[in-house]
Amino acid sequence: TPRVFSGIQPSGRLTLGNYLGALKRFVDIQNEGKYECVYCLVDLHAITVWQEPNKLRDNTRELAAFFIAAGIDPEKSILFNQSQVPAHAQLAWIFNTVARMGWMGRMTQWKDKAGKNSENASLGLFAYPALMAADILLYHATHVPVGDDQKQHLELTRDVAAKFNHDYGVDFFPITEPVIKGPATRVMSLRDGTKKMSKSDPSDMSRINMSDDADTLAQKFRKARTDPEPLPGTYAELKDRPSARNLVDIFAALSERSHDDVIAEVEGMQWGTFKPLLADLAVEKLSPISGEMKRLMADPAEIDRILGRGAERADAIASPILQKTYDLVGMVSSR
Ligand code: AQP
After folding, report:
1. From the alpha carbon of 188, which atom of ligand 1 is closest?
2. Rounded distance, CA 222 to CA 240, Å?
3. Which regions form coiled coils (predicted)?
C-alpha cells in the first residue's frame, strides 16, 4: 500500500488552521483506508526556535492527545514523536549534504521566521526543510497532506529526492506529491484576511485555539473582521473579499460541505446572522475534541505508551531505508 506521511510541531497552542489544514485531513485520509498513514509529532523541528523543556514535554503530550481526540486511531495509523526514531536526524544529515544553501535561503518560512536578524537564527531553522525532506523520504511516502503554507517545503523535498537519485545514479527516493485539498487549505487570521492564522500572532483574537471555550469562540467570531457587504450569491464573488471568504471557508470545512453548498444556504445573509451560526457550528465540532483531549491528558503515561508503540512501528520502516541510504552513499557497514 502507498504511504502517507505528515507532521505537526509540538510548539504549543494548536489553532483551527492546524486542525482544518492538517489534522482533520489526516483523519479523513486514515479513514479512507487507501494509505498506510505515518503521523509524526515533530519535536526536532520545534526546537529550531527556543522551547522551554518542560513546556515542550507538555506540548508533545497535548499534541498526541489532539491527534487521538480528533480521530487518529493509533492502531490504524502510526503515531509517534520524531526524536524517538533516530533515523530522522540521521537521514537529515545526509540531506544537509545534498541540499544547497541557495535552496534554503529562498524558503519564505526561513525569511519570515529569521526576519532581519538571520545572523542570530539557529542553524537548525535554516536547515529545517532538509529535516522535513528526511521525515517524508525515510518512509518512502508518496503523498503528504499539508496546509498551503508548506507547499514550498514540499517542492524542496522533491528537489532533494531528485538530486540524491541523480547524484548517486539510483531511483531510490520517490518524488512526493503534496496533497493540499479541502475547503480550507489556508485558514486566515480573523483580524486580517490576508495573513495566515498562526499561533505566533501576538493577537489572540486573530486565531481560534483548539482550547478556546464556547464563550471565547463566540466572541472571536463575533469580532472577526468582515466587510460591509452581505454574503453573495456565488463563491466566486468572494474572490477579492479575503476576510469574508475566510469565514465561509471555515464554515464549509467544519460542516464538511462544499463552498457552493454553503453559499446556496447563506446567500444574502448579513454577517450579524451568519457569525452566530458559525460560532455554534464551531462549538458543536470543536468542543468534543477539546473535551476528549482533556480526558486523555489526565493519563500522560498512557500517551507515552501509545507514542512508544508508534515509534517502534515507525522505526521498523525507517531503519532499513536509512541503512540502504548509507550503503548507497558509500558508508562502510562495520557492525
Ligand atoms: N492557517 C493555516 N491554515 C491551514 N493550514 C495550516 N497549518 C498551519 N497553519 C495553517 C498546517 O498545519 C500543519 C502543521 O504546521 P506546523 O506544525 O508547521 O505549524 P505551524 O505552521 O508552525 O503553525 P503556525 O501556527 O503557522 O505557527 P507559526 O506561527 O510558528 O508559523 C501544516 O500542515 C501546516 O500547513
Report:
1. 1
2. 21
3. none
